[in-house]
Amino acid sequence: MGEWLNADGTEIWVHRQGRGSDVLLIGGLGDPAESWQPQLDGLSDRYRLTAFDNRGAGRTRLPAGQLSVAMMADDAAAVLRALGIPAAHVAGFSGGSAIAQEMALAHPELVRSLVLMSTYARADEYFRSLLRFFHWMAEAAPDERAMLEAFFLWIYTPRAHEDGTVEQIIEEALEFAHPQSTEAFQRQVAAFLAHDTLDRLHEITVPTLVLAGEIDILLPPRYGSIVAERIPGARFEVMNQEAHQPFQEVPDTFNARVGAFWRDVETQTTSRV
User: Fold this and answer.
1) DSSP notation for the chain
2) Per residue in 132-179, pLDDT tens?
3) Which of 64, 55, 109, 115 is nearest to 86 (CA)?
4) What's the gap between Cα 190 and its chain centre?
5) What pLDDT is stored for residue 128 in this prediction?
6) What is the C-alpha separation between 13 and 190, in angstroms, rounded?
C-alpha cells in the first residue's frame, strides 16, 4: 500500500515494499509508482524498494511554474531523507534515468549505485523532434485510448503488441484512478527535453549499470552507450530483442540483471571494509 510523504514540504505519493538493502525506483514520462510493480513484487524478498509518483504523475501534484529534471531529482533526494534512508541503490527508467543522473550529481551522498535503463545524456535533434511530437500528440489524439495506443508504439516490442500485453496495459491505464493530465504530460515532456548532463557525467563516481533495449526506437542503444562512456567505470549492456520498457515486458530477466549488479556492488563494498 502507498502513503503520502512530506518530502521537504512537498506531498509525494510513495509505495514501499520488501526488506533488505534500500532501492529507490524512479519512473519515466507519465509513470506512477505502480509502473514498477514487477520489481516491487519480484525483488522484495531481497530489497526494501521505494517507488514514488514524480510531480505531475499519479497522485503527486503538478507544481506551479516551471518543471525541471533538477526539481524532480531534489524530490527523489527528499524522499530518501524523509524516510531516514542514508543511501540507496537508485534505478531510473527513461526520463527517470535523467532524474537519477541529476540526483547522483546533486546529492551523491544518497546514491549507493545507479541503474540507468533506456537513458540519454542530452537530447539530439532526433529525440527532440520525437518529444515535440509527443507534446503535439497529447492534444491531437481524439481520446485517451487513442493517445495510449499511439504512445505505446514507441514503448513496447512488436511481440507485446501481438500477444495482447499492450492491450492489457492500456486497459489497466484506462482504469487507473489517477490519470495524467495533458498539461502534466506536456510539462514533463518539456522538462525531459531540456535535460543535459553530457558534460557533467564524469563527475558521477558510484558504480553504474547502463541498460538499453536492442530494438528500442525511442532511445536506441547509441544513447545509453554515450552515457556509459562518460561515467567512469560504468557497465553498458544491451538487452537482446527488447524495446524501451523491458522491466515490464521481461521482469524476471531485468530483475536478475539488476539484482546481480547490486550484489556485486555490495560485495565490493564489503571487501573494502
Assistant:
1) -EEEEEETTEEEEEEEEE-SEEEEEE--TT--GGGGHHHHHHSTTTEEEEEEPPTTSTTSPPPSS---HHHHHHHHHHHHHHTT-S-EEEEEETHHHHHHHHHHHH-GGGEEEEEEES--SB--HHHHHHHHHHHHHHHHSSSHHHHHHHHGGGTS-HHHHHTTHHHHHHHHHHH-SSPPPHHHHHHHHHHHHH-B-TTTGGG--S-EEEEEETT-SSS-HHHHHHHHHHSTT-EEEEETT--S-HHHHSHHHHHHHHHHHHHHHHHHHHHH-
2) 999 999 999 999 999 999 999 999 999 999 999 999 999 999 999 999
3) 109
4) 16
5) 97
6) 22
pTM of full prediction above 0.90 = yes
